Amino acid sequence: MIKQALFLLGALSLCASVHAAGNAADGQKKSTACAACHGPDGNTSVIPDAPKLAGQHKDYLYKVLADYKSGARKNAIMSGQVTALSRQDLQDLAAYYSSVPGSLHIVPISRLKGSGH
Amino acid sequence: MKKILFLFALLVFASAGSAALAQDAPKGNAEAAKNGKIAMCTGCHGVPYYKTVFPDVYHVPMISGQSELYIVKALQAYKSGDRNHPSMRGIARSLSDQDMADLAAYYTAHKN
What we know:
heterodimer; A: mainly alpha; B: 112 residues
């Protein structure tokens, strides 16, 4: 019985690493430094080339942060910002910014029209 | 304190660079994009909940309403190879600076 329970626990902990699980409330607490460029609402380009984050897909936000951390993506400011952050921090930040309402949205292509919108 | 000063210095440096870039860049025309190049974008960015393919699976990012300069910078990075995504690289390499400006102008103002 114990063996099965331990096995299940082990399997479940592996599953957790696949999903970008994070806590939005914790993410908000960790987002103070981010506001400098992305705005206090995550929806302002305080520096003109900073992307809006608010409402973006959580898994995409996490992937971007993880890429900065791994070096797969490089940016003078962002690469430095994430060195001190743990994976949990990245998950929390992604969870937070994805939960904030913002300008980002999707305009679905319509199958009824011809080409384009 | 040192960290804050360093971050501030980086901020000034980064914004100076992007300001210079913006002056050389062509002015975007959203209408030009609408009549042409957006067909390449809507196939992924216009389908709700669309995801990328294995092995790196995540939601295709929303770009409607995104910062105009960021869109240009992103396309430039895909074109140069600074950002590494096969589909985006192929698409970006087919875009001129004017195309990028037009697409950015279109998507930043894109409404439902």
